[in-house]
Structures are given as C-alpha cells and as structure tokens.
Protein 1
Amino acid sequence: MTGSHTAHGHVGERLAAAEAVVDVRSPAEFARGAIVGAVNLPLFSNLERADIGTLYKQVGRESAIAKGLAAVGARLDAYCAAFAPFRARRLLVYCARGGMRSAAVVSLLASLGYDARQLAGGYKAYRNHVL
C-alpha cells in the first residue's frame, strides 16, 4: 500500500515492518545518536535547524515553517533525488519527536509514490523503547 501514514503502533513493530529507516534530523542530531541502521537524509543543515528552532520558540510556528520552506525550496529536487535508492522499499521516517520534519518528508514522499510511514514519537520514542 502506498501512502502517507503516521506510525502509531509499537516502535519495535514499526521498525520490523520497515525495509529502510530514514532519519531526517540534522547531521549533528544524527551524530549524537540514531536508530541502528538508519540512513541520515537531513532536511536541514545544523545551522538551519538551529535558526528555525530559535525562530519557532521566539516568533512562532508560522514564521518557522516559512523559513524552513525557504531553506528547502531551492534544493528540493536534489533532496527528493536522494531518496531514489529507496523507491521500491517500505520506508520508516523519523525526526526528533515525530514532529513536523518527518511529517513533511513523509507527505512529500507519499506525493511522489513512495511507501513511507512516520515513526510516531521519533527518536525519543525509539530511545524509550530500547531503554
């Protein structure tokens, strides 16, 4: 089944069902820890993530989303192309807490015909699961 789904099931079940796990957090977040076997295809650079996060806290969600869209817009084709090796695989996509970054990427991938799911709770849920 192709489409966009949020993974609300058990973390272990979702990991077992995935054929590839994609971490869309920044390179620095990935370096601090990741799901075993995950591939890092960051939506934002370290600096972009810091800037957008600060904007989110200080100004609000709309401003942060606008800045995020502006940051990704110019390189959207290249970002989508990075997923080409995973075209025929069932993907599990996650970010820090299963929030906006992974949801946006899952939505984008689904619109391109990928079988992508979001890991609800993100890396935080994974850490809780393994601990």
Protein 2
Amino acid sequence: MIDDLDRLGIASAAVTPSWMLIGDPRSAAEYELERSPFEDERLVRVPVILPGAAGSGWPDSIDALYRLNPKIVRACPERHRFDAHGSVAMTWWNDLADRGIALALDASECGLPLVASVADAVPNLKMLMLTPGYRELRRLAELLTVAPEVFVETGTIVSAGGVEWLARAVGAQRLVFGTGAPIWDDAGPRFQLDHLDLKNEDVEMIAHGSWDRLTGGTA
C-alpha cells in the first residue's frame, strides 16, 4: 500500500480494513482493531462500526469506539443489515455528531437517498459520501446545498468536467479526493486531480484541505 502511495505521489491515506468492510466487524475487530495502530503514520485507520442491540453489533458500546480515537468511522447499513434510522443507529449518529466524529457512507452500497435522509435527521453530523458516481451530479449539488455538513469523495466522479462543475456549484471545500482503491481504480482519480480546470487553491482544497475540515486531521 505504501508503494502505491509513493507511485501515485499521495502523501497519506485513510484506509478501512477489508476484514471489517466485507466481513463481520465483530469477528474482524479482535484481529484488526485490538492490534497496535498502523506502523506507517501515513495511513489513517477508518473502522467500520455496526450499530446494534447488545451483543449484535460492534463495538459493544459507543465509549469503546471512542477509546480507539477515530477521526472518522464507516458504516454499511445494507451490507451489514441494520436500520440506519433505527433507535440504536440514531443514538450512535447523534453521539458521533456531538463528539465531532465524521461518518462515511458508501452511496454505491446504500444509495444516495439514505445518505440524504441521515443527513436530514442529524444535520450536525459531518458525513463523507463515498463513490457517488458521475450520474448523480444534480442530486449531489441539491443535497450539498441543503446539508452543509455533507462532503463528497471525488474518485468516481469521472465525467469530463464533473468535479469542476460540482466545485463551482457547491464549493471545493465540500469535495474530498479519494480513489476507493483497491476496489476502484486509483490512477484515474490521481490523474484527474492533476488536470482539474480549477484554481490552484481549489485543487489544494480538494487534495487535502477538505479532509482536514471534515476530520480535523491529516490524510
């Protein structure tokens, strides 16, 4: 992974353990999250949380999550089969918002309407929408206009001028560079970043400034 960052000229990356993303976070937790942090400081771990009744989710409590000191967490309502608007999940979303921890949801997994509905239900929750795709530009612009705490990953906005159009519509500070690798292509989004028809300060904002606004960290 570090070799890939060097090859693409990327300073640091937020990463999610595949054990948690594709499998069951409960069984992956012992292996992935109770180990020491990544040895390379260029990698920022993004744990996958699974809100659920006692014994059915991960971690067992919100306080247990915060002991990991995450900058941002990820959730998969469809893949892990939980109700994003259920009482347990809503408790978690509100607590994340109160503590200033961002939530990442994958639009290709759970759908843009669900992302929008969570943003509407918890308007002070910072959210990062992953892999929205280039066909959603108008709906993305509408959502970002009414949900000021929602950010969008740029990796799958691959239409000609799509990132530029969205940046001009809602501001570059709402767009976060990402590749979705290894599931999605990494070289394409990196090439796109180098050739955006935007002011240098807007490109810098997309490259790293928006992530800092989202998480208060570095990646």
Protein 3
Amino acid sequence: MSLSGGCRCGDCRYDLDRTALPAVYACHCRDCQTMSGAAFTLQAPVPVTSLSQSGQVAEWTKLAGNGHDTIQRACARCMTRLYSVNAGRPGVALLRAGTLDRSDEVAPLLHLWTDRKQAWIALPPEAEAYARAAPAGRMEILFAVNFS
C-alpha cells in the first residue's frame, strides 16, 4: 500500500512508494511564506524515485537560496504546489506535506528560519528550532526516516 495525496481540485494525484508518513520540517522563511500565502510551509524530503504522479502538472523554475534552480511543480488547473526538486539536492523531492491525504497526522520534527517566523506563531517548548538553516547533520534525521 502506498501513501497518497494531491491537489485541492483533484486533477493531480500522487503516490509515494511507502506506507509510513514521511518526516517533515516547517520552514518559516519569507520565501516559503510568500510562495504559500501562509505563515510557513510543511515539507517532506522524499526520494524522487518513490514519487509517481498523475494529472497535468505546471512547472516553473526559480533560483533558490542555495544558488541552484528549483523546479516547482503544481496542478495546472488549481495551482496547488505539490513538490519541488533542486539540482543542489539530486534525487530529492520536497513534497508539500499539506497535500498528503493524511496531512492532519504529520507534525514537524524541525522548525527552520524561525528568525523570520510570524510573531504570533508560538513553537512548542520542546521543538527543535533554528534561526536560519539547520546546522550540518540535522537535516539528516529527516533523510534517515524518509529514505530508509
């Protein structure tokens, strides 16, 4: 059995070749706020090879903070962003965790770019949070869960 998700209009669907929910992180950077129209994004780094999709997908390229082009993929009809890929992270898709059919069951393991978070957002006291990007080695906890 696979994990499924899709856009809000139903035209685009995807399956992840896994049964367990992926580990996710919350990104509070201004870029994520602007692109999502929300206070933060929930993203799950997953292997590109584990992702299959159906429906017409629109793509656009944007230069990411790491200096590499990021290809954003969204439903061509309702423009729900589904995932992105970045040449700086070959083989990795950043899945928008809010598009999972079981999105109400995910909770972020990490909070990134909290120096840009909205003032009204209160993180749990036990949250692992970083003012900017996660230090070397910390993102690997997500990869260890999602790539095993």
Protein 4
Amino acid sequence: MATRDLGSRLAISEEVLTEWISAQRWFGSKARDVAQFNILDVVVLRREPPALALTIVEARFGAGTHELYHVPIGVRSDADHWDREVVCAAEGFTAYDALADDQQTALLALLMGTGARIEDGESSVEFWWEGGRPPAPDTPARKMGVEQSNTSIVFEERLVLKVFRKVEPGINPELEMLRFLAGHGFAHIAKLEGWFQYSGELMDATLGVMQQFIPGAVDGWRLAQDALVDQGTDFFARLEDLGAVTGRMHAALAADSEDPDFAPEEPSDENVSLLSATIDEQIERVFLELPDHPALAPIAGRGPDLRDRLQMLSHIGIGGRLIRGHGDYHLGQTVLGPDGWVVLDFEGEPGRPLRERRRKHSPLRDVAGMLRSISNAALAGELLFDLPAASADWESRARDFFLRGYLAEVDQALLPAGKQAIEKLLSIFELEKLLYELRYELNNRPDWLAVPVTAIARLLDEPFA
C-alpha cells in the first residue's frame, strides 16, 4: 500500500517503511511485535525540489496497541545523488530523513523564525517564535551526537532545535515546563526560543522546540565518568550544587497554586497503596515478559523477590506534596556551563504515555532518578567502558553530596516528615526507576542491559534495613 503524495511522484511502501523505521535509534519499541507501519497524514512544507514533508506514522503492534511517530521526509531527484539516511529510492527520486539535510533543517528554522502556518488539506503545521534573532536562511547546522528518542540540530552554535519523534495528542511537557519555569523565575534552563505543532483530524501535538544552545557545556554524565577516572573530589562539590539547583527547581514548580496543571496537591491516604500496587504490577509484567537473553540470567525468576522487597518498603505515608516534576531526571539531562548547572529535557520518560508524564508526584521521584543515575555512572564505567571500578564509598559520597544540596534548598513542606520516611520513599521510587531502565534498555540499547540487571541483582542481595 502506498503513502499519500510526499511532494513528488515518490511513494513509500509499508514494507520499506517498516524496515527503515525499525532500524532507527529513536524507534522505542524494538522489543515489541510490530504488525505494520502506516503513514496516516502528510503535511507538505515545500513542493519544489528538494521537497519536504512532515509525516505522522503509525506503528501498530500485534497486541492491538499503537504508537505515533513524527518523521520529516525529504525528497530529491536522482540528479542530486543523495545517499544519507535514505528511506527508499524509486522513479527517479530519493526519499530520506530530512533532518540529515542542512537545506531542510534550515527551512524548518526559517518557518519557525517567521511564525509560518502551513495548511495541507484538513491538517496544518504552525510555527511559533518568541526568542531573539532567528537563524539566518543559510545558517550552518549540525546534528548533535547520538540520541535515543529525539533528534537535535544545532544552528550557529547558539540555538538548538529538538524534533520530537514519538508524538501524542496534547502539549509536550517539554514546551509546557519550559514556559512555566521561565515564568516563575527559574533561571537554570536553556531559554525557549520557539516551537512548532501539528493540528489535524488525528490530533493536535507538539512536534519540536527551539532553545538556546550552551556552547562549551559538559553534561553531568561525562563529568561523572571523568571523576571516576581521576578520582578527584571536585565532582562531589558540583553534585552538591546540582542538588541545590534541583531543590530550587522543585520550589519553582510548586510556586503557583492558581494554575491547576501545576498547583501542589496533598497526597491522599491511598497514594502509597496505589503507588505500590502500580509498581507491583510493573514488576509482574516485566518479569513475565523477560526474553531469553544471557544478560538477564542474574535476575531471571526473581520477580517475587523484588515484589517482597517492595512490600517491606510500602508501610509508610507519602506526606509532603505532589507536584509536577522533571519526569526523567538523570545526569545526562544536566549540563555544567559557564554560568553553572542547566537542566534539560523536560519531556519526561519517553516510554510512558503523555498523561502519565504530566501527572503530579512527590518531588522525591526526580531525586530518586538522579540517585539511580549516579549509581549507573559507576556501574556503566566499570561494566561497559573499562573504567576503573569506583572506590568503595564513591557512590555513597556522591549521593550524600547531592542530597545535602537538595535538602538545603527545597521547600521542606514538599517532602515527607522525617529522615526515615524520606529514605523509604526514595527507595520505592528508585525501584520504580530500575524497572523502567530495564524495559528501556531492552527496547533501545540491549548492549546496556548489564547495568540495570547488575543493579537489580545487587539490590536483591542487600539485607533489608
């Protein structure tokens, strides 16, 4: 079955589309049974060569569920001899991933800078600009390093366009959170410059955002890996600063009691029970669906042990407040720039539905994500990158420094009362994060499975305090 017109005479078959998308790093369901891919809608942004179309592609799975992906497609004639990120070639034309083409990404930047609106049939793409000087029409651009779930393009080393690949109906939390935080005085973000969105019979959805680029910044993950090599102590002080920034971020996210999407809420008595039941169900489902993979051998059949540990942690009250959070907080979502730490990527965990990513939680859920990332940095360095094993107290010291900075800045009313309640709730959220990491690596980076598997195995072997 052929797609709709892509601004040329070229059509893409379902078979070709399936083979190409399944191989892309941003396709996040590699471990699932894909029944087929279909192009559901096309908005042509430019019909003259090289043509550019934004497509909404459906991935339909054997279980009857589906996901939607945003795939910008460029079309060039054979005379251009285009050979990068090719989807297919036929009838004298080549279709390819448009984000590999500077000429196509420059058009996206131009449309955003001019606030354009493109209509195509019943659908449209609208571009918004609220920043300073937009990129020039012939601006140099480059793709950022390998990413998992999105694609980012840097313009003039001062702006970065993040194009969302997996899309869902509604505003993307990245756009929503950046606008809220900027409006409530939180300075540790990359300034929002513009965005673009799709509207049609299928849905309304955010397709991408443009932000300030921070040249010379180093991400927290790289800093952790460097610290494991040189065994210096500067990293601990930086972690304390990052903890303080995190505390201020949560205070800002809790600052508006009039906005129903962000107003803090008191947890009900059922919150812990619901949280525990949800994680318990996740444990059961994840362990039932574990494939026969050698890397999973250390935890095979140990789902009941993990559920027992969860039950021992669950006899507490959440306390504090429920607020909107970062949602996927780890070292790789932070960079250290000339003016200090900057927090990035507020879209939440890409493997979760949008409604879950917008849900309010205890702010300790973000804290647990960062603590898991500190642990992962030590494990990955040793297991994957042949770095020296972390010293016996490296992880505990790193965690302590981060928590010290956090607790000094966060509004204490947002947290449970007492150290024991905080520690137990953190442990529950860390367990939840471990399950997510296990699923994520299965679907996206099987070569990384040793990290969550080792962490789960070590957790199960620890005596319960």
